[in-house]
Amino acid sequence: MCTTICLKQLDQQHTMMGDPVQLKDEGNKFFQAGDIDKALECYTNAIKVCKDKKVLAVIYRNRSACFLKKENYTGAASDASKAIDVDAADIKALYRRCQALEKLGKLDMAFKDVQRCATVEPKNKTFQETLRRLGAEIQAKLKTTFSTDSRVQNMFDILLGEEMDKEKMEKAANNLIVLSREDAGAERIFQNNGVQLLLNMIETGKPEMILAAIRTLSGMCTGHKARAMAIINMVGTDKLCSIMAIDNEEIALATCNLFQCINDSLTGADKRNYGKEEALVLDASKDLKTILLSLLEMLGSKKVSGHGRDQALNLLSKNVPRKNKKEDNSTTLFTIDHGLKKILKICGQVPELPDQLPLTENTQLIASVLLNRLYDDLKCDPERNNYRDVCDEYIKSKIDPNNMDKTIHAINVISGLLQGPFDVGNALVGHQGIMEMMVALCGSEREVDQMVAVEALIHSSTKMSRASFIITNGVSLLKDIYKKTQNQRIKIRALVGLCKLGSAGGDDYSMRQFAEGSTEKLAKQCRKWLCNPQIDAKTRKWAIEGLAYLTNDADVKDDFVEDELALKAMFELSKSTDKTIIYAVACTLVNCTNSYDKKEMIPELVQLAKFSKQHVPEQHPKDKKDFIEKRVKRLLKAGVISALAVMVKADSSILTDQTKELLARVFLALSEDPKDRGTIVAQGGGKALIPLALEGTDAGKVKASHALARIAAISNPEIAFPGERVYEVVRPLVNLLNTERDGLQNYEALRSLTNLAGFSEKLRVKIIKEKALPEIENYMFEEHDQIRQAATECMCNLVSCKEVQDRYLEDGNDKLKLLVLLCGEDDDKLQIAASGALAMLTAVQKKLCHKMTQVTGQWLEIMQRLCLHANPHIQHRGLVIVFNMLNSDDPELPKRLIESELLEILTVIGKAADNPKRQQPIDAARTCLVKAMDLGLIKPFSS
């Protein structure tokens, strides 16, 4: 009775809402009668109440037909898709979606739909005709819309037209840049009067247009000598220099990049193959000389902005000194003859004085770096003497007792040399009267004189011999300036001078220059200034300079890392546009993490030194391991990684190889604890390490590679090194596989390569291309257990590559023998790796099953031991190898296996009751027995 009532209620409710099937049928009638609006209304109501998926798909398909009639093609495509989601082979829905997509201009998608229709009903003439028509339309559209010429013309029309649609112009500019990076695209732009049109874009004077034009020219010049020569002659070196001179950092950097592309193409530094271009013999020496002279001309010109001057110095620094010391250094000598005085002029600028060259915060230090690189590139004493003579003559010409501005210019030049080729600057400071002049300037009434003189004193006390002279003669002077001056900028510089002198003994606890507690007081004052936002950034930078010296003292470094505000203030400054701070920050961090090189103290030699009354360095109690670990944790908590990542990105000569080495040392110290490596990855440390591992000093590259290995060993490569960067990581890791590296570096490199090799086939191929295989094979012979295990695990992840398999198939080597013997070792981890590699090899290369029996007489005993192993993972791998041998091409091998004790072992394992903990080996043993039965070697038991 109750059921009947319920059914009646449902029927009444159903009638009120409307029956979906009934509504669909009504919609069909209206559609056939041509009343599309009524049909749409019925189908829409039916959709609202329909619960049956198949019926709903039909309703959507029908409503799609209505939308086609109403020319609502988006709605038609959407409804047809919903029908197709339920039934992928619904021809009516597919064809309706095809019609809608065609009208929406999505010809390729429409073509796919009608192709599916024609596959199901190949004789349907409508489908065949639509297929032909759409194919022809797609070809025609491709010809007109996507031809490179029309794309180029279209972009220039948008960029140089009167229409000012910002979004369209940005898109066109980006497309032009991307197109220029493909050789075919670059050639089409060049052939279609592109250079003149790009010059027209530059003439608009709009920064975004200039940027787009310069970046497009860079793409066109990359790797193509003839085109680069043509462009430099069409545009003109002077024109490019005038663009780089604009007071816009982005434009200056882009033009610098264009000059670099031109230089690389003209000198052949770009080694990529560009087809027929290689056959052209063009003499680029004249163009290169013109560019060099123009860049040197920019150095001393007041019309050039600070950013332009920086980039001119960067280009000279990167391209003038030799990369290969076997080549001649004629370009360096030419630069010294025509430009050394101009570089010295930049070093001598005092921004506080009137009528100075426009500079950035970084210009003078970049000039010092260039001076150093030019000096280092000289071959012999006469060349060095000439360099010193030019500097000496320049200084003498500027010293004038009646003109204080010229004199402090000369002192500032010496400061620049002391930060560059120190020996040259040091020799000048030693000249009669120079030190006395610096001391006299410290007492001048003009604050600018005091500031320049104090800075020169600081830079001149870099070496111990000079520091001892100043400790005797200058400490009281600096103290006097510090106490008397009211100017914070001079006060802080005087303090830094005292800091530097106070740290002359390095981290040797027994050689403190000042009284107990003095260095802590100096450091406290430096931290106070560092945290004061009222003081300008350039002055606060000097506080970090002071800490860079004082943190040689363990008490100071321990106090500093406890001061989170001071740490964060230093990190914020390191991220600023003033990159001159990088070296001081790097030195401070090296001191705080104790990542500098320490001589090993051999107890016997220490006793001998004490006996002979020689000085023995002492270690501060706070420089022991537990204190260092605490400091590392504090630095990580304060955000040191993000600061390091920004410093590494500094695209300028200021980031010298020595600075890169310091940063690499810090990274290595920070990555010591595996628990901290996730933090390093999360804050961008993985990406930052790659350039440090590829460029810099040999020691710096090794330390950065070691830090990379630590991160790559335990991280997901996709997260640690996103995008294509992961492939750049491989080479530094392979470089660590070297007998000159220590065992820990070898071990961590192998672990990281194992992780990468297990990630993707592309990475495995990259590892092999970097010639890592011979090194990995050598370490598989290593006596050290952990290194041998790591190498075997790495090989296990690489054996899926055809090239690795071929090496094991080759005759005349012990590779396969070693792998078989390693399966018999007592170390579980080593056995898992070796047996895993052997299982994969014998599965894909059946010849290796027979070869195994030839390389060692112990093979059968080792197989039996694997199959009886207590560890189910090892046992499973052993049984897989046995199955591969049963499945080999050698007809005698399965017989030998079954006639041995292996049959009994397989039977015992296979007859065992199912056990989740050992199910894999049980199933593998049963598979082996079934294979033996298939081969007719054993018969099934019958009662």
Overall radius of gyration: 38 Å
- Share of helix, binned: over 70%
Structural class: mainly alpha
Outline the biggest β-sheet: none
**Uncertain regions spanning at least 5 consecutive residues:** 1-17, 273-280, 505-513
Distance between the termini: 62 Å
C-alpha geometry: globular
What does the average pLDDT come to? 86
User: How much of the sequence is in beta strands?
Assistant: under 5%
What oligomerization state is this entry in? Answer: single chain
Number of helices: 55
Quantity of strands, as a count: 0
Provide a descriptive summary of the structure in words.
The chain has 943 residues and is an all-alpha fold. It contains 55 helices and no strands. Helix 29 packs parallel to helix 31, helix 37 (657-670) runs parallel beside helix 40 and helix 45 (773-779) runs antiparallel to helix 46. The chain is globular. The two termini are 62 Å apart.
